Amino acid sequence: FWQLSVTVGNLWVLLANSSIRSETVLSQVEATGLSETAFLMFFFAGFALVAAAVFALYARSYTMLDNYRAAA
Asked: How many domains in the chain?
């Protein structure tokens, strides 16, 4: 499962980088005054923040299981 997760993550980064590095997006980034590296840093940080929020919402509805045995 670990290798599948890493593969999906690497594919996400590859697709995001290729779409962000298009001329249209780069011209918009340059118009804001950010460098390409700074924009990529903020883009992936924003995506990580959204992913963390999704996991936090999921964790709120998670029911804890107590699988420990009582002390004998």
From this structure: 1
